Structures are given as C-alpha cells and as structure tokens.
Amino acid sequence: MASYQLSVCAEMVFLDLPFIERVKRIHEMGFGVEIWGWANKDIDALVATGARFTSMTGYLTGNLTDDDEIQQLLASAEASLAVAERLNCPGLNLHGTDLDDKGLPVKPVEVVTGAMWLKAVETLRKVAQLGERAGRVFTLENLNLPVDHPGTPFALAADTLALVEAVNSSALKMNLDLYHAQIGEGNLIELIRRCGPAIGEIQVADVPGRQQPGTGEINYRAIARTLHDVGYRGTVAMEGWAKGDSTAALQQFRDHFTV
C-alpha cells in the first residue's frame, strides 16, 4: 500500500458545479482537497464541508525580489496562515512571483540576476520563519515557461530545489509539479530521487493537455512506484483538468497511483 495521500485541486474538476459542491464531491470520493486563492472563497462554508484540505495558495500579491512586493508577499502570507488555521490546512503554496488570472507573471522577468537569487533566499527565509511559528509548511512550486507561465523567475524544479536547500528550513519545501517539470526539464524519476527530502508535495497532470494521469505521455504508474520505493509520505495532488467525466477522471488518477 502506498505511503502517500491523494488529493485533488477543486479549481479544475466538476466545473459544472458550484465551488462548495466540487469540494464536497471530491471529499465524498475519499480525496483530500486543494484550493488556489482564498480571498474569493467562503471560508466558513469550506470548513463546514468537513473536507480535508491539503494545500492552498499561501499569498495574495507580491514577489520574492522587489522590496515593495516583498512586503506585500509577507503580509499576505501571514494573512494566508490565519485562513490555513481555520481550514486546518498544513500546506501553503508559493510561486517565484505573483501570477495574474491567466497564470502569467504580473512582472515578467527575462533574466534572473545573482542579486535576485540572493534577495529571493532572504525573502524565503522570512516566509519560512512565518511557517515555523505557525506550525505549517510553505511549498515553492516549479512552473513551465514554454506553455503556461512564460516570464516567471525561478521557474524550474532545479531553481526551486536550489532555493529550498539554501533556506534549509522544515517550513519551506518544494511543491514538485511533475506536469510542469515534464515540459521544462523531463527525466522525472531521477528528478524525484534528486529532490528527495526537499519535496513537500507532488502535483500531477499529464502532458500534453494538463489532464488526469493516463491521458498523455507520462508513465505515472512508474512515478507511483518510484514514490513508493523512496518512501515518500506526503501528498500527491491532481492539479489538472478532467478529460471527460470528472468522477471517472478522479478514479483514473487513483488507479494510476495505487501501488
């Protein structure tokens, strides 16, 4: 039996239902639930579903490198922790910069300088300190540049790994998104083995199309065996669109990660 737990992003499945009903449906199927931004959500209604929330976006605005933006990120990270406490959500997700409603960076970056790397490490240390005090974990997600998120700094899994290892805190881990990593880097099994204890969460969707495992080129059954073999005990979350019926898509996801 696998040592990890399965979760599903409610933003991308059961799209014909109101958001709270999506959460209930995912919960009824035995999965944990993930959400993106919380500012437009009815938090009391989410709590009332009884769902097990595993991750939520851990900031509202800001980035890792610009002084004014850093203050926005830290303030909204602290506000996010208060919401995470209400939801009993252990994980809060970050990106290299804030994204707009189309997933594009608000301030695109063509070249990431050495000074930006140093500032990002300094900012993430402060984020980790917030997480340590609250007893929760921030995760830094890798994103792909060619298809979905051009202009995002610190986008590769190699980048997020370097930042997480530089901060060296139990309250800052990687959100290793294998959909993005397949497009940006490939060699997923060796990537998992290399990242090892730096991983706080795994997110999955297939390539191309960003749909459930089993619809594209990634051998997710081999990924599942690898996660089992390395003793990964965190969350594996489907952050992908449902191809066809959402219930069947979630069942397909579960099938590919049952070892």
UniProtKB/TrEMBL annotation:
Keyword field: Isomerase
InterPro entries named among the record's database cross-references: HyI-like, Sugar_Epim/Isomerase, Xyl_isomerase-like_sf, Xyl_isomerase-like_TIM-brl
Domain Xylose isomerase-like TIM barrel: 45-247
Family under the similarity heading: Belongs to the hyi family.
The protein's name: TIM barrel protein
Taxonomic source organism: Candidatus Pantoea formicae
